Amino acid sequence: MCLLVKEGSEILEKIKVGDVVEMRYYTAEASKPAEYFETEIKHITKDDKGRFKGHYLVGISLMGKE
Q: Which residues constitute the domain of residue 6?
């Protein structure tokens, strides 16, 4: 999975590869509550060309999930 983060966003100053952060995840069903999972930052890649130019792709992995 990846998050799309705009270049210049403050979050890019606060995360680095290898960090583990607790993130809230929502299901497609609005009636179900959000769940928190530890999430590892796997990569932070700037997209200089293509569809997401001017953004970073932040690769994430849920800890203990496949």
A: 2-62
Q: What pTM was computed for the model? A: 0.82
**Side chain identity at 16, as an amino acid letter?**
K
- List, for residues 29-46, the tens digit of each pLDDT value: 888 999 999 999 999 999
Half-sphere exposure of 56 (CA within 13 A, CB side): 20
Asked whether the beta carbons of 58 and 43 are under 8 A apart, the reply is yes
Phi and psi, residue 5, nearest 5°: -125, 130
Give residue 24's Cα distance to chain centre.
11
The count of structural domains within the chain is 1
- The encoded tokens of residue 9 equal 């966003």
